[in-house]
Write a structure and sequence with these properties.
By secondary structure, the chain is of the alpha/beta class. The protein has two helices and eight strands. β3 (37-42) and β4 form a beta hairpin. The longest helix has 12 residues, at 15-26.
Length: 116
């Protein structure tokens, strides 16, 4: 069997607010934006924003899915989380530096980098 994960969706209450947040965070414009959402191409991985209210889907927020984004250096990671609400402070865990922040829609996003 050949299987690869090449995309994920996060739900958003306010697509415009989420788009602005992630355009600043990923330092790129959203692709294929519509009323339902759009995505960011992160080195071939599609990070989608889904405006679930547009299709009338019920959703509840939880902590069972945690997107994890890797950065090349601790300096870059620190720059990306500066000014963000941290729900897990920058901590060295094993061979990585790890933190979690809360995005504009209440989603928790993990960021990490290899410890030197």
């Amino acid at each position: 069997m050949i299987c690869r994960i090449d995309s994920m969706y996060i739900i958003v209450d306010d697509l415009e607010r989420a788009t602005a947040f992630y355009e600043e965070f990923f330092e790129q414009k959203i692709c294929n934006k519509s009323a339902l959402g759009g995505y960011f191409d992160i080195d071939g991985f599609r990070f989608h924003l889904f405006a679930y209210k547009e299709v009338g889907e019920p959703h509840s927020y939880g902590s069972n899915c945690l997107p994890s984004l890797c950065f090349e250096t601790l300096e870059e990671l620190n720059r990306k989380i500066a000014g963000k609400e941290l729900c897990f402070p920058l901590t060295k865990i094993g061979k990585n530096w790890v933190a979690e922040f809360v995005d504009s829609e209440g989603n928790h996003i993990e960021v990490y980098t290899k410890a030197e």
